[in-house]
Predict the structure.
Amino acid sequence: MRRYGLRLSLVLAGVAILAALPTLGLPPYYVSLFTQVFILGIAAAALDLLVGQTGVVSFAHASFFGVGAYTVAILCTRYNVSSYVITLLAAAAMATAVAALFGLVALRAEGVGFLIITLALNQIVWGLAYQWVAVTGGENGITGFFRPPIGPFAASNVNYYLYALAAMLVSVAVMWVISHSPFGLVLLGIRERPRRMRALGYNIWSYQYAAFLLAALFAGLAGGLFAYYNAFASPADLALPLSTQMLIMVILGGAGTLFGPLLGAAILIFLSNTFSSLTERWPTILGIVYVAIVMYAPEGLLGIAQKRLLPSLNTWLRLRQRREVSAAKQSESPGDAA
Amino acid sequence: MTFYLQNTLGGLAYGGLLFMIASGLTLIFGLMRVVNIAQTSFYLVGAYVGLTLIARGTNFWLSAAVAGVAVAVLGFAVYRLFLHRYHKQELTTVLLTIGLSLVLQDLALATWGGNPRSVPPPAMLAHSVTLGAVVFPSYWLALIVISFLTAAGLWLFQRYTMLGAVIRAGVDDGEMLRGLGVDVDRSFYFVFLLGAFLAGVGGLLGGPITGAYPGLDGELLPLAFAVVIVGGMGSLTGAFAGSLVVGLVNTFGKALLPQLSYFTIFAPVAVIMALRPQGLFGRR
């Protein structure tokens, strides 16, 4: 516990500030943006479990997110389910079930084969949502449902902000525990040294499969929350551009850092909302941002902080210490000589 | 019977246009380990450039050739400025080309507008052929012939020319090839240009079937990837076989299960992954 004392208190302080923000007069526009950040943050952190921790790059993440969104929308509109617990659990379960099928196909391939197959699978799910009008409402998506009250509280935007924040905290905490558990360390080992892990007797496939399912589970949950947030589920929720955006969130924040993707989600969401209202050519700017991140910041912000900032801070401290010591010695030495 | 014949011909024509995209995709990947997401953007840009030329009264075939050259120049810029540094870094190339395809898509939207355009086939092929009970647009037959000729030409080129031999050797073992003193870089540029050229030409040639509209690039992408997965990465023969399989499955899927048509191309991909993960003609 003491090992993580400083970081834990920093996280708690951050959470306290975030929880207090709406009551301190955060404008409604930003309440809504932050809610998006929390929800997509869950999905991005889950993707990091797969990309950063396990070293498996999936482009099918949005499909699980979208399956979660559609699950909630369909349960609300056709079956009149009004319990968050039931719909969100169902969203996570459906996403995991789809991942169980996709994983069987995609994990037959390795590396880039996996990447391409997940990309194709995501496009196929999108096509299904787009064309299977009877179930998904096609291009128009599914509307006509609203957030039920959150326990004893009204389903106001501020309360939903807090609900999403809580969901993000619990999800990220669970993912943190998983990534630091023996299971998570095996995933890390698979990323770093797959052959050695195989030689040590680990069944790599089943660990990768489990990580794939876990990532999908949290993506489905996030998708469900997103459907409630928008009161809407549409093909955009599971389109390939969203998969890409989630990957960019992970990379921008720093793959393998778990908290970095939250930062990445925040930056990308604030950027896109700012620029898309300023210019019609926002996709061009977004494309240039992607290219710039990939070319100039492939380690991500937290990655750069960990690799460059911390060591240089350490070196600086050590140098200063040494200088002080040598200065102290010098001030002593004339006396010695005399 | 009519139904099957009609859709078989339609599937072959569609497969033909997929081959124009996927042949470049598979060679670029096989040789440089670069996943070029922008390949279908090249197709779309080719279609638009060709349409612009036709609107100015240029001959269809000439427009297709010029569109191909224009897209090849675009491809050269993309390769020279960005991709040549990132060989064998698949994730980097994927994200980079996704970014580039976003830019291309958006600039195409800004230049040519959002309305779907239809591409008229050349006048001499603008009628139908009657084969027994089947009525078939003669342009589709022409497209089948063109794509088969292209495939044959590429195959002969790869089999019997020095550059073709360098490309085949590069797909198998690029490092050894370099070690033997062969100028591999030249073949990289050539293959990327060739891939972009074929996609650009394909854009106009396939236009009478697919049309041209924003989002077409994204729709063709999974089909092109399905071709590469089914055929095996880096194999030209595989790309040809895969194009025909995916073209046929896609066309029959649209006819038999219209609401699930996109989902039906999942079937050949799943079957291939289960039985032969390296693809029909791929090597481990």
Notes: The mean pLDDT of chain A is 86.
